[in-house]
Write a structure and sequence with these properties.
Belongs to the universal stress protein A family. Pfam families: Usp. 38% of the residues lie in helices and 26% in strands. By secondary structure, it is of the alpha/beta class. Strands 1, 2, 3, 4, 5, 6, 7, 8, 9, 10, 11 and 12 form a twelve-stranded mixed sheet that branches.
Length: 285
């Protein structure tokens, strides 16, 4: 598996990269090739005497690259200039990456920052599965909030085609999760559909049996009723999830927004790591 890992070379980025448990989780899901990328925004000048931003960035990348290499990954480092989310997503498309990994610190949409840019913009335009890794500030610096990335994975589904794509991504995580929890939330839209609560429970049980056969792990199911985002966040806490898996919900031709209201809200509000899988139509051929 090939991933693009975005970094702004900060102490927070170091915390994400240097977490041994996180590195082991990536290795366990089959990641062998890591492309580190840092983006120098256009508004950062390199014309000052004695200052070469790109060269400084390449030099700074060496220590982070070394961490991945010592963990056994094949690593290539990239320094780009421009808009961070465009450069990150562009590299992922060009490399045909299996996943993009970004770090996020802060909860609210205004404070929710990508290491190197804005996590919401990367999420909105990502055409590859995107893992948002939570980083928290501590008295001594930074650390990842939940080290064991995929140990307890919560998959939330509305049984749409986009949710199905996220479900189909689950077996690629084989080797990392110890438990998977399947969740359907009966919000207003779901309650107005023909799908009953009993139907939803039956479909989840079928999916659970399928995953247990494919992944050889424990799978539990639950159906909740209420506001979709609030219920997903509540279920994260109830089951002790370390990563929440969601399908992005559609596109906008004008702004190329791929993520959808629910997934975007979870990315912005959750304390969990979040893995968002884009619609099939978003993936370039």
């Amino acid at each position: 598996m090939r991933i693009v890992f975005a970094t702004d070379l900060s102490d927070a980025a170091d915390a994400a990269i240097e977490s041994r448990t996180c590195l082991e989780c990536l290795a366990n899901v089959g990641v062998t090739e890591v492309h580190l990328i840092t983006v120098v925004p256009d508004n950062v000048s390199s014309g000052l005497p004695g200052m070469d931003v790109a060269s400084n960035a390449r030099e700074a990348l060496k220590s982070q690259r070394r961490v991945f290499e010592e963990a056994g990954f094949e690593v290539e480092a990239h320094v780009a200039r421009g808009t961070p989310h465009r450069r990150i997503n562009g590299l992922a498309e060009r490399l045909d990456a299996d996943m993009i990994v970004v770090g996020s610190r802060g909860e609210s949409p205004l404070r929710n920052r990508l290491i190197g840019g804005t996590v919401r913009n990367v999420a909105r335009t990502a055409v590859r599965p995107l893992l948002v890794e939570r980083i928290e500030s501590t008295d001594t610096g930074y650390e990842v909030e939940k080290e064991e990335l995929f140990n307890t994975t919560l998959y939330a589904t509305d049984f749409s085609q986009n949710a199905q794509r996220a479900y189909e991504f689950l077996p690629q995580l084989t080797g990392a999760p110890e438990r998977v929890h399947l969740l359907h939330v009966r919000g207003r839209e779901q309650m107005e559909s023909d799908l009953t609560e009993g139907d939803a429970r039956a479909r989840l049980e079928e999916m659970a049996a399928d995953l247990e056969d494919k992944m050889g792990i424990e799978v539990e199911t639950n159906v909740r009723s209420g506001g979709v985002v609030d219920e997903i966040l509540a279920e994260e806490e109830r089951v002790g999830a370390t990563t929440t898996l969601l399908g992005a919900r559609g596109t906008s031709r004008l702004r190329r927004l791929l993520i959808g209201d629910t997934a975007e809200s979870i990315v912005a509000q959750s304390h969990n790591n979040v893995l968002v899988v884009p619609p099939e139509s978003a993936t370039p051929r």
